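Structural prep section.
Before we set up the soaks we want a predicted structure of the protein with adenosine-5'-diphosphate in place, mainly to decide which crystallisation condition to try first. Input record follows.
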Amino acid sequence: SSHKEVHGFQTEVKQLLQLMIHSLYSNKEIFLRELVSNAADAADKLRFKALSDASLYDGDANLRVRISADKDNNTITISDNGIGMTRDDIITHLGTIAKSGTADFFSRLSGDQAADSQLIGQFGVGFYSAFIVADKVVVRSRAAGVDADQAVEWSSKGEGDFSVENIEKSNRGTDIILFLKEDEKEFLDDWRLKSIVTKYSDHISIPVEMLTPEVPEVPESKGEDGEVIPAVPGKPSQWESVNKAEALWTREKADIKDEEYQEFYKHVSHDFAEPLLWAHNKVEGSTEYTSLLYIPSKAPFDLYNRERQHGLKLYVQRVFIMDDAEQFMPTYLRFVKGLLDSNDLPLNVSREILQDNKVTQAMRKGCTKRVLTMLDRLGKNDADKYQTFWNEFGQVIKEGPAEDFANKEAIGKLLRFASTHNDTSVQNVSLTDYIERMKEGQDKIYYVVADSFEAAKNSPHLEVFRKKGIEVLLMSDRIDEWLMSHLTEFSEKQFQSVTRGGLDLGDMDDEQSKEAQQQLEKEFDSVVTRLKESLGDKVKDVKISQRLTDSPACIVTDEHDMSSQMIKLMQSVGQ
Ligand code: ADP
Ligand code: MG
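Run finished without errors. Recording the tokens verbatim:
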């Protein structure tokens, strides 16, 4: 029996469908990109599985995707001969959203269409984008290695539910049939379809085929003077590739257009927005690999979700091996997307093998350097774009010095802070800028960490610095105390918290103020003694200081004690 069942969509899928239909009307054609992208993924997955079981090809190893339009029935069909889906696969993959943090994502939608469509861009739309142009979608699929009578058909109008039933399907793979909405018939036009494929899917590594128009035979005829004009044989319609069908990263850099890199990003990252930056490199020598690394323009909504999948797509000799190989990037660069194609790893490499492997380590080292260099260059060449990057990912970069000791200096170059130089909360002062502005005789980088920007900016500890015109970095992010406990120097300059220890402004303290200090200490000796007596064990010491100009007193931490900020942080995690 066909065993027909009706299933309700997961709530989030229903929301996604609604949102998509209403917010993506100006960019409808992307449905084709998403479906072709899925077909290419399905081909990759089959090739990978066939590495250990070649019988899965079942005599059909030329993987491709075919697109055709049927004007009589108002349908477009996208067919692949990739891995296919079983009944269980289809119910999970086309009925739920598997991403971690999905519920949280949907709770953030505001109902404001412009804002929501931005968000959805980050989320990615995938298969469900079929419903932008179709009011009914039928998916017929037969998984590799499964008998013809075990295929499955999924059908839905994109409202609350979908049905599944068992069918016969003679060939392996997946057909997606879109029943176009009344006013979306423009997509039935072959030229239109072809131009969408070239625009978005040129870089897909399997052929995207369409039927050539049928050319009717021209029969023999007689010309005006009675001469015989020979017949011209017709040409039957045939499948022809309309894309380059070459893995983008294997091509020469000089031959690849920016738009191609951008479209490829959307395919590998399942992101909808443009990438901010990318680097494409062939590495030769003791380890050989190609890397294509992208920095997204927006932080994903689940950047801080520990279960979030991240990492690079891994290929070995152009064969897809796995998604989300997280071994190639340190945690503080977990937002980097893209792929690696190794010539040295074995084709049967597993996550376990990757874990403790010399090749992996060399590639990780190389890729980390690559990303740090690319970001440093961006910082030097395009301050605006770098600011966009920093606003999205700066907090994560600040995890770097604690995690990656070897690259401390390179990470230091990427850091940006607010400072007393411009006194705004915008974090746009680099350590290099700071050092350039250091006063004659100043040998330390001064900073203050507080609970908020306002508290940092108005800290009484800053008074003497302001008076002397010495710049101080103003830090108030949750992670800053952690960062500063690992970042002790940059470019051979020590960091010095202005709230710590005896403040030695070095050569900047002139003779005059040293004399003044002695004078003050004498004058207020009895006040200090009385304060010490009344405060007792609550303080270590009471000292006369010149660091204040307006406030009467402030609390200072001893050089090697935990700062008050760190104490708060430890308390907040229950220490
Ligand atoms: P994503 O591609 O980001 O995983 P999609 O919504 O595009 O999300 O697709 C959801 C899932 O449905 C895919 O991960 C895959 O498992 C399955 N799928 C979609 N299209 C195909 C296809 N043509 N062949 C096999 N599986 C598919
Ligand atoms: Mg997809």
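Observations: The chain is about 35% helix and 20% strand.
Flagged for discussion at group meeting.
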